Automatic annotation (TrEMBL):
<keyword id="KW-0489">Methyltransferase</keyword>
<dbReference type="GO" id="GO:0008176">
    <property type="term" value="F:tRNA (guanine(46)-N7)-methyltransferase activity"/>
</dbReference>
<feature type="binding site">
    <location>
        <position position="117"/>
    </location>
    <ligand>
        <name>S-adenosyl-L-methionine</name>
    </ligand>
</feature>
<feature type="binding site">
    <location>
        <position position="144"/>
    </location>
    <ligand>
        <name>S-adenosyl-L-methionine</name>
    </ligand>
</feature>
<feature type="region of interest" description="Disordered">
    <location>
        <begin position="1"/>
        <end position="52"/>
    </location>
</feature>
<protein>
    <recommendedName>
        <fullName>tRNA (guanine-N(7)-)-methyltransferase</fullName>
        <ecNumber>2.1.1.33</ecNumber>
    </recommendedName>
</protein>
<feature type="binding site">
    <location>
        <position position="203"/>
    </location>
    <ligand>
        <name>substrate</name>
    </ligand>
</feature>
<dbReference type="InterPro" id="IPR055361">
    <property type="entry name" value="tRNA_methyltr_TrmB_bact"/>
</dbReference>
<keyword id="KW-0808">Transferase</keyword>
<feature type="binding site">
    <location>
        <position position="92"/>
    </location>
    <ligand>
        <name>S-adenosyl-L-methionine</name>
    </ligand>
</feature>
<feature type="binding site">
    <location>
        <begin position="238"/>
        <end position="241"/>
    </location>
    <ligand>
        <name>substrate</name>
    </ligand>
</feature>
<feature type="compositionally biased region" description="Basic residues">
    <location>
        <begin position="39"/>
        <end position="52"/>
    </location>
</feature>
<feature type="binding site">
    <location>
        <position position="171"/>
    </location>
    <ligand>
        <name>substrate</name>
    </ligand>
</feature>
<comment type="pathway">
    <text>tRNA modification; N(7)-methylguanine-tRNA biosynthesis.</text>
</comment>
<keyword id="KW-0819">tRNA processing</keyword>
<dbReference type="GO" id="GO:0043527">
    <property type="term" value="C:tRNA methyltransferase complex"/>
</dbReference>
<dbReference type="Pfam" id="PF02390">
    <property type="entry name" value="Methyltransf_4"/>
</dbReference>
Amino acid sequence: MDEPRPLGATAVSAAVPRRGKPMFPDGTGPAADPAGSHHERRIRSFQPRRSRVTASQGEALRRLWPTWGVDVDGLSRLDLDAFFGGLPVVLEIGFGMGEATAQMAAADPGTGILGCDVHTPGQGSLLGLAERNGLSNIRVANGDAIILLREMLAPASLAGLRVYFPDPWPKKRHHKRRLIQPEFVALATTRLAPGALVHCATDWEPYAEQMLEVLSAEPTLENLHDGYAPRPDFRPFTRFEGQGLDKGHVVHDLLFRRRG
Ligand SMILES: C[S@@+](CC[C@H](N)C(=O)[O-])C[C@H]1O[C@@H](n2cnc3c(N)ncnc32)[C@H](O)[C@@H]1O
C-alpha cells in the first residue's frame, strides 16, 4: 500500500491496535473501540459518546453484523469485491442514523455503500433499515474512517466518497478536529479510483468555506462547479441537515471528481 502523509498533530501511534470486546457474549456485534482509536494520541473528528442502543437496533446488530458489518481494527485489508459481490463501492463517512444512506442505496442498487461511523445506535439503525427495505448493497464499518482509509482500503478502490454534515466543530480551538483538512483529503484521494466523485455537504458556513478551500487545493481533484454545487437531486435530506435548516442555516454542497 502506498504511504499517505501522517494525519493529525501527533501522528498515529505505532502501537499494535487493540481489538475491543464484541458487543454480544457470543462474540458477535460491533467491537467497542475496535482499533483503540479513541485512545490513539491523535486528534479525532468525533466525540466518543455512550449512547443507548434500542432493542430493535441491538437485535439488528446481533443478527446482521456477522454478514454486513466490519470492525475498523486497522489490522487487515478489506476485500471490497468479496464484501459487495463486485459492485462499485462508495464510502460514506458519518452516516448518523442512516436514513439518507438507506434512501441513496435504494435509489441506486448497482452501487455498494460502505457506511462508516463510530456511533453504535446508528449502526443498528442503518442495518435495520437495510433489512426492512430489502437493500443488499449496504455494509457498515464500525470505527474511525481515517483508520479504515489508511489501513484497510486499497489504493484506487473506491468509486466515490460522501461526507454529509460532518461535525462542524465551531469553536476555534476545535477546528483541528474537523474531518475535511488537507491531510485527510490527501489520504482519501489515494483510495479513490480515477473519476470517483467526492461529495460533501454542510450547513455551517465557515466549514463550507474550509471545504471549498481544501478540496480546491488538492491537485488530484477537480471541482465540477464554479465554487459550490447546486444541491443534487440524488442527495436526500439528512437528519442533521434538517436541524440546521430549522436554525436558518444555509446548506452548501460540494462536488469534486478524482482526476484520471
Ligand atoms: C453531525 S453527524 C451527521 C450525520 C449524518 N450524515 C446526517 O447528516 O444526519 C456526523 C457523524 O459523523 C461521525 N463521525 C465523525 N468523525 C468520524 C470518523 N472519523 N469516522 C467515522 N465516523 C465519524 C459521527 O459519529 C456522527 O455520526
